[in-house]
Amino acid sequence: TNPVRFKVAMRAKRLGLPLDRLDVMAETKVERICEILSEQKTSMVILDSIQTLYTEAIPAASGSTSQIKESASILTRFAKHTGISLLIVGHVTKEKELAGPKVLEHMVDCVLHFEGQSDLQYRMLRVVKNRFGAVNELSVFDMTDQGLKEVINPAMIFLDRYGAAVAGSVVMVSRDGVRPFLVEVQALVSETKTAPRQLILGLEYNRLTLLLTIMKEQAKVDILKHDVYVNIVGGLKITETASDLAVLLACVSSLKDQPLPHDMAVFGEVGLSGEIRSVPNAQERIKEAQKNGFKTIVVPKVNQPKQPIGSMKVIAVEYLYQVLQAVFEQNGEELRQVG
């Protein structure tokens, strides 16, 4: 028994797939693959992987630039001629870029990146190039013992909150591709008798130091003399600056030991002069928070919706000190004494 076929058959059986509709072929010669496929009634073919295929038209080793380019060219012409859908698997580099010549990405109709970490149960399918549709689309799947299952509401998968509201926690409306996500930002601010330190997981370290300095100079809230620890729950890596406001509110909440409302969400970029700058796709973020039961949302004034969003309370602010006043219900003099 062919070990490749046996392994695929065992996995298909475990996942409950119909074995009578699944064929496996152990072949690396492109001409032979096209010849066999043209004789069968096949709707979809998975080629794993393009780096192992070769064509006799090129006198080079498998995986070389010329072999990958010519093999992919033959396969794409075959797919367009026969109408068979080809899913070509390619290796990736350490930088998570598609290995091989860049022309390979231009030859195919769509490039999908299947991402995930071994310690997380979720997998993401990201569209980075689509000839017939939009890019930056994202699908989220749950890795189960029965295979991958689509996550119906991906906006909530990284929101893991328990019980009553606690100090140092706030929900941020982030965005990955075309999908908004609700993510919990946690902060712990502690007094120290030694040199203060800042530690942040899921965000850029230098960004945290910059934000704390802005808050000290523009809102007169000095947290730099404390130890500050910030964490993005769920192991996410947030790169957008729309997380600025959530990080600062979580830090002040921990410093004052005052919990923020459990049903409040936040997003906004903080500028060097303390202004709250607009973020892209604000309306979609607001609607996503409202759809998931949040009653209050803090947004930049530029992103304030023109029409009411149901019964949701929208707090639109221009400057950082206004945010602290609105959220913590303090007057300006008391705010200057914080920290």
From TrEMBL:
Highest taxon listed in the record's lineage: Bacteria
Record PANTHER family: DNA REPAIR PROTEIN RADA, DNA REPAIR PROTEIN RADA-LIKE PROTEIN
Organism of provenance: Acinetobacter junii
Molecular functions (GO terms): ATP binding; damaged DNA binding
Pfam families referenced in this protein's UniProt entry, alphabetically: ChlI
Key words of the record: ATP-binding, DNA damage, DNA repair, DNA-binding, Nucleotide-binding, Stress response
Stored SUPFAM superfamilies: P-loop containing nucleoside triphosphate hydrolases, Ribosomal protein S5 domain 2-like
Name of protein: DNA repair protein RadA
Cellular component terms per the entry's GO annotation: cytosol
InterPro entries xrefs: DNA_repair_RadA, P-loop_NTPase, Ribosomal_Su5_D2-typ_SF, Ribsml_uS5_D2-typ_fold_subgr
